[in-house]
């Protein structure tokens, strides 16, 4: 169970990077073919990077919904476990202090 939870984060990250890289190479090709305008001077790479971010971000929101939900579950589970451990430690400390008195 832990392996699938860990891989949810890794899978989301890799897929998000893949969408960005795909957008980057498609846009780079379109700029190279002069379908899209080039940047000013030497800013061509920056232009393609900015366009890639602007296109891949909303695309990732739509395409990677399931992976994002799996990651959210993973995080919520870890937070709940940490909260319960913290509460157990507090209760144990309270009992030890009561016994000491």
Overview of this protein structure:
- It is a single chain.
- With 101 residues, the chain is mainly α.
- It has 3 helices and no strands.
- It has one domain.
- It has helices at residues 2-32, 44-63, 65-100.
- The protein is rod-shaped.
- This is DUF4229 domain-containing protein.
Low-confidence stretches: none
Q: Report the portion of residues in β strands.
A: under 5%
Oligomer: single chain
What is the average per-residue confidence, as pLDDT, rounded to a whole number? 86
Largest sheet: none
* Number of DSSP E strands: 0
Keywords:
mainly alpha
Secondary structure: elements and pairs:
Blueprint: H1 2-32, H2 44-63, H3 65-100
Helix pairs in contact: 1-2, 1-3
Organism: Streptomyces pratisoli
Protein name: DUF4229 domain-containing protein
Task: Provide a concise account of the structure shown.
With 101 residues, the protein is mainly alpha-helical.
